[in-house]
Design brief:
The protein is mostly helical. The protein contains four helices and no strands.
Length: about 70
């Protein structure tokens, strides 16, 4: 439950910068599998939102970490 709450808060109100991009990537690598097991289709929807809304914002940041997500 805490991981889901953290992810929602992270995506909703933090600015897109290098630290937040790296934090999100690490978080999903560590907790993504378990979140998928627990929340199934809802987690897939969050990943889709990250892909369509958050990643384009990341790519607008002129940063090497953001560029490799393209």
């Amino acid at each position: 439950g805490y991981a889901w709450t953290w992810l929602a808060r992270h995506l909703n109100h933090l600015p897109v910068n290098r630290l937040n991009i790296s934090t999100l990537e690490c978080f999903l690598k560590v907790a993504g599998y378990r979140l998928h097991q627990a929340y199934g289709p809802q987690f897939i929807k969050v990943l889709a939102a990250i892909s369509t809304q958050y990643v384009p914002k990341m790519q607008q940041v002129n940063d090497a970490d953001a560029v490799r997500l393209r």
